[in-house]
Amino acid sequence: MSVAPNHHPPAAAVDPAEPGTLRLSGRWTLRFANEIGEALRASPDGIVRVDARAVERIDTLGVLQLLRHADRRKLDFDHFEFRDDQKSLIAAIEDVHDERPKPERDTGFKAALGRLGHAVVDNGREVAALVAFLGELLVKLLRLFKEPSRFRLTSTVHHMEQVGLDSAPLVALLSFMVGAVIAFLGAMVLRDFGATIFVVELVNAAFLREFGVLLTAILLAGRTASAFTAQIGMMVNREEVDAIRVLGLDPVDLLVIPRVLALLAMLPLLTFIAMIAGLAGGMAVGAFTLDIPAVAYFARMQEMMETRHFVVGMVKAPVFAVLIALIGCLEGLQVAGTAQSLGERTTSSVVQSISMVIVIDALAALWFMEMDY
Fold first, then answer.
1. Considering its fold, how many domains does the chain have in total?
2. What sign results for the dihedral spanned by CA atoms 92, 97, 98, 101?
3. Residues 48 and 174 in one domain
4. pTM score, two decimals?
5. Is 367 helix (H, G, I), strand (E, B) or coil?
6. 199-251 pLDDT, tens per residue?
């Protein structure tokens, strides 16, 4: 490669007056990439300081070569000296140097307290966003009465099939097994008191008040909320939601309301199925393990069953349905357009849905207990 007279190739030489100092000169640019590598490889060991103030010109490649040389020779890059007009470029490239060691995570008390504070603030923002999204949903639901043409019947029925019919076998099976487990546990305790027959009341009250609706809500929080987030999040990634807005349509009308209405219609129905399956599981254990004939078990259940337990369970179903659908749809709309964001939002929707369902169920249980209902 021919070099113009005023283009000096890179050079690196040890200062005779200071044996530990390596002085650089010439042009450290892409044009002289091979010469830069040869000059650095030829530099001797024992160098503690590099003086690059005589370098005429340096670009990104020259800085990266010096950074890698410093890493190989275990040199402190702070001991490299550059001209003032080159320091801004040096600092910018040093900040994005991909081979710099990552800073260790601070595990001190202040850092932990700071992370806790950030988590609280983030959770507060999520709650505020959820409340605002609920308000927007209510406004647009009321708008359907004025403009019925906005209602998407086909989409709503499609989601009812996905949410309800496809989930019914799983809900029934798990509820049956949990009902059997509760009957076994109750029998273990009550047998010592000669009160095995009271297993009937235990299973009835547990499934009608709590376990029927709670199991159903948790299953749908894991199955349906994640599906809603993934479906809407993929539409955000593909810019389909932006296309909906460009067409003058409302994403809430098209994507959110059908899913909310579908879950609102199907969760109470699935809750009823879970209650029946749980009671059937308890009856099966009573008939085959506790020597309580099915006819006697059913007669006792019919005699001791109270309507208020059923009402308490069914009242919570619509609340859980709206909560799960809102969280799933909101997290989907908040996807930032990357695969990582989609995964994070899907995980967040499941965690938030299950957590909120359990918290609200606990608060409702305390409230009904204080009201003696």
1. 2
2. negative
3. no
4. 0.69
5. helix
6. 888 888 889 988 999 999 999 998 899 999 999 999 988 889 989 889 888 89
